[in-house]
Amino acid sequence: MVKVNLDWEDDARPFLHRIVGPLGRRLLDSVWGLKVAGLDNLPRQGAAIVACNHVSNADPLVIGFAVYPVRSLRYLAKVELFRVPVVGWFIHQVGAIPLDRSRADVAAVRSAVAVLDKGRCLAIFPEGTRSKDGRAGRPKAGVGYLAGQTGAPVVPARLVNTDRLLSFRSVEVRFGPPLRFAGDPGDRRRCQDFAHMVMDRVFSL
């Protein structure tokens, strides 16, 4: 079982985070011509959920580097990644939360709620897995539950060309205005409807 570190704050990033963040941002800027639009839509303080499309294994890194100048991100990551040498150590060090996708992972949800209750920023991929063709998949209701349970705004983010890094296409990250969920987090249908609205907004960016 992976222990989740909930102790560090946005203004007291772990040593590894402080090193990798600016280096990764410079690399994306210089090699892939990173373009970031709408970053002002991400609140500079307080709880926030960044909801992204998912087309590449590099997506968590790209979204993290894109917001690094203003926020630090925590992530929900599939538990299998924590078993991969080096990768597992790295994502644990930067505060990822292991998620077992084979079941309703109550512990992961509680950790995500705790992160948001502490006023931090959480990145999630509502589709739950990568899209192989770039088209939208069916999102999970979890983004609605987290938004309703914590009151955190959901900032939609579109990742463009992260699946073409080896072609050195220009990478873009586009942020949209925050969305609020006013429904009952216990109402799964309302949560699911909200998740669809979030992903519709993501793919409209």
Radius of gyration: 16 Å
How many E strands? Answer: 7
Taking pLDDT < 50 over at least 5 consecutive residues as the criterion, the unreliable ranges are none
Number of helical regions: 6
* Biggest pleated sheet: 7 strands, mixed
N→C terminal distance: 38 Å
Overall pLDDT level: 85
The percentage of residues in β strands lies in 15-25%
Shape, per Cα inertia axes: globular
What percent of the residues sit in helical stretches (DSSP H or I)?
A: 25-40%
The class by helix and strand makeup works out as: alpha/beta
Strand arrangement, largest sheet?
1-7-6-2-5-3-4
Sequence of secondary-structure elements:
HEEHEHEHEHEEH
Describe this protein's structure.
The chain has helices at 15-32, 59-67, 87-93, 106-117, 142-150, 188-204; strands at 35-37, 48-52, 73-78, 96-99, 121-124, 154-160, 172-175. The protein is built from 6 helices and 7 strands, in the order H-E-E-H-E-H-E-H-E-H-E-E-H. It has 205 residues and is α/β, with parallel strands linked by helices. The chain has a 7-stranded mixed sheet with strand order 1-7-6-2-5-3-4, sandwiched between helices. Helix 1 crosses helix 2 (59-67), helix 4 (106-117) crosses helix 5 (142-150) and helix 5 crosses helix 6 (188-204).
